Structures are given as C-alpha cells and as structure tokens.
Amino acid sequence: MRGEPPIRAVLGLAEGRARVLLGAYDGAVRVRRLQTFAILAAVVCLALLSAYVAEVEPSTFSKNLYRFTNYLYRILPSLTVANLAGDVADWYWRFGVWMRLLIETLLIAYLGTLIGALGAVALCFAASNNFGRNKALRFATRRLLEFLRTVPEVVFALLFVIAFGLGPMAGVLALGIHSVGSLGKQFFEIVENVDMKPAEGVRASGGNWLHTVRFAAWPQVAPGFASYALMRFEINVRGASVMGFVGAGGIGQELISAIRQFYYSDVSAILLMILVTVVLIDLGAEQVRHRLIGLKGASA
Question: Choosing a second label site near 75 at 20 to 30 A (CA), which of 138, 206, 226, 280?
Fold first, then answer.
C-alpha cells in the first residue's frame, strides 16, 4: 500500500532479515490457527458422537416438550387476588412439617460438610507434593481421595440406607465421605501453592513436620480452606435434598412422595422452599467468602 513504511524501517532491521522474521511469524500464526480448527473439529465430532450414543433426538425432544411444560403448569398453585392469603395458606398447608424437614436437610448438609472438611484437612497435607514426605503414602492418599469423590453421593446413601436403615444418618455419612474426596483435592492443591519460605525458616529453626504445617502452612491455607468448605456446604444443601429420594432423610423424602402421589401443588411449594433456602445460603456464603479472601489479601 502507498504511504506504508518499509518493513526494515518498522522493525529496525535489514529488509531481508525482517522478511524472514515476518515469514516465520506468519507460519506460526497459520500453525496456531490450524491447531484451533483441529480442536474445534474434535469437540464437534465428540459432541455428535456423544449425542448419537446417548440417543439424543431433537425431533423427539421438540415433539414431547409440551409434556414438560404441561407438568410445570400443573404444579403451579391457584392464587387469586381476592383470596390471596387463603390460597397461600392452602398451598402451604403442611408448612410446619416441611420447614422441620428443611431444617433437617440443612443440618444433614452442615454435618456432612463438617465431616468432609475435617477429613480433607487430615489428608490434604499427606497428598501434597511439598508436604507429603512419603511417596507411597502420597500416591495412596490421592487414589483414596479420587475414589471418594468418584462414587456419587446417592450410591453411598443407598449403601448406608441398607446398612443403617432409613433416616438422616445415611445422608450425613454419604455427604461426609463424598465431601472428603472433593475437598481433599481442592485442599491439597491449595497446599501445593503456598510460599515455602516460611516452611524453610521453621525447619531451619529446628521445627518438625507438624510445626511446619502448623506455623508455616496453616496461616496461608486457612482462608482458602474455609472458602472451599463454604462452597461445599452450598453444594451439600442441594445434595441433601436429593438424598431424601433414597430414604436418607430431609425434605427430599417429602418431595419424592408428593411427586409419586401427584400432589402437584405440594411439589411446587416444596421446590420453592428449597430454592429460596439455597439462594439465601449462596448469598450469605458469598459474602463470607469475599470477606475471607479480603482478609487473606490484607494479611499478604
């Protein structure tokens, strides 16, 4: 193009050298584009293959979509402006029972999260590369954490229901064991990113492994541990609601009973209670996490 400065003037190099560099750059850009297109093509092919294996048929989906929307319409309560208070009271005719079961669900989630967090703290340092002193122990600990988080909570709940019978205990154990695996991985990744200079200082002053963990690592990882534990509590509240489907206590038992008996208005009432509870917990936990992150940044 006219008025365009020569290549050597732009790069400050001899024209031949500049053209070689620009040619190499263009080649690298072409290779990067080919890699991007290859990755996108692989993603599309895998998505199509997955849809074929899973028997995903858009025609069937569009043909039967009305069934889902029709069910949603059925569970909506009949509320009128003239008798709004009475309609709401009729909608939540078992509010006391549902609230008690919802509180039970929250307690199941809390206790399961507490068990999971304590177990994860006990295992995460042994699983980390910088604090795990024994290679075989580190390998075994990581495989254990993988197993605990791979098995779904519902499977654990079914096993514990068979072993201990129906009730909240099965839900607590199922959530606790699964949370150990999930939090354990997150925790040891936090441990592996700590600044090791304080640890070297503790060791140089004669401290043992426990002293190093307590005085060098723990002040750095505690805010992150608390943040992930709060996030896990949010997840476990939703999980505890599902645990009731297999008889592990909580509001889920009442929800599955209402679904099976076609008590449509009860289904929407229970779902709304669960939704509001989860939203409130998410908002509260988000504020706490932000404060913890802020305190960590201030201390750093």
Answer: 280
> Helix, strand, or coil here: 195?
coil
Domain that holds residue 26: 7-53
As a whole number of angstroms, the distance between CA 65 and CA 59 comes to 10
Residue 130 DSSP SS3: coil
3-state secondary structure of 6: coil
Q: How far apart are CA 153 and CA 151, in angstroms?
A: 7
In a domain, 257, yes or no: yes
Question: How many domains are contained in the chain?
Answer: 2
Cα 17 → chain centroid = 52
DSSP state of 216: I
The predicted pLDDT at position 1 comes to 45
Asked if 269 and 140 sit in the same domain, the reply is yes
Q: Which amino acid is at 295?
A: L
**CA distances to 64, 173, 228 from 117, in Å:** 43, 13, 9
Spatial separation of the C-alpha atoms in residues 278 and 203, rounded to whole Å: 45
Query: Is 102:110 a contact under the CB 8 Å cutoff?
Result: no
* Count of positions (residues) in the chain: 300
Query: With 60 as the cut, is the pLDDT of residue 97 above it?
Result: yes
